[in-house]
Amino acid sequence: MELSSIEHIDPSQLSDFKAEVFITTLGYENRCTHVARLLEHQSCRKVVLDSNSCLKDFSYDENREYFLSKEFEFFPIDSDVPDLEAILSSLTGEDIGVMIDCTSMPPSWYYQFFKWFDEKQDFQGVVRMRIVYIMANYVSLDSSRKVKELTHFLQADIKTSVEKKKALVLGLSHEKNISDSIYKLVEPDLLYLYYADPPVAKKFVELTFINNHALINATPIRNLISYPIRNGQAIYQSLINTILPLRNDYSIVIIPHGPKIFSVVAMLIHLGYPDVRISYPAFKKPPAADRSPSGEPVVLDILFEGEE
Question: What is the pTM of this model?
């Protein structure tokens, strides 16, 4: 199959979707069950992914009890990624609807869902995938935490006879010193900074500019790009407009630090352009906070179609 369209959906239309399966994740944050509660009336099959490595603290027990009470199917995850065959192979028909709540889902998991359908060459129908997640209220994180290394996620085995210059597309977050550390680790020849404006809360954008002041000032204004945090379709087009002119001359890496919607879109970019690498910062002290939901959900529709 191939990714044929990406469409921003107004949150008021969240329920206007016929799904055969709704997939979410058991996590420790208070916001973990928020999307599931909004979709309680859905009569489709309901699946919750349960990682053995998840922190079983904060709201974990309460969230687990909620999913049990609503008769979700629990899929324990012992490895790095879920067993997608076990979850998705029963889907039949030429028009399949899949709803995925990625609020508590790690990047490697939602990427595998995209990849599973993208590589399903024997399916001639269409798969309509609705991606949903709820953003979090602002929580102050430990300002002393530092980037340990960069995890090269989805790094393709690309061989080239010419050593290319490096272009870094970096998602800014509101945390202090993180973006500067990433920049020093990559040492790019060309830098683009992406930030959410408007963000989920005004405080986020204020801290983003304050805590990234030096890096922003050293970046040409044309390479400082804002994106609407609720509109994944607009983010995708903006990233495409940035990377396409660079691919011949630069080795491109996207580090989608910051809001999850930027990470989701980066995965979709990689599907179509596997030479674009994705990396994430790994921290010496991983953050953990019981974050509550903020505002309305972000909703993005993705269409996969069978190739003729």
Answer: 0.90
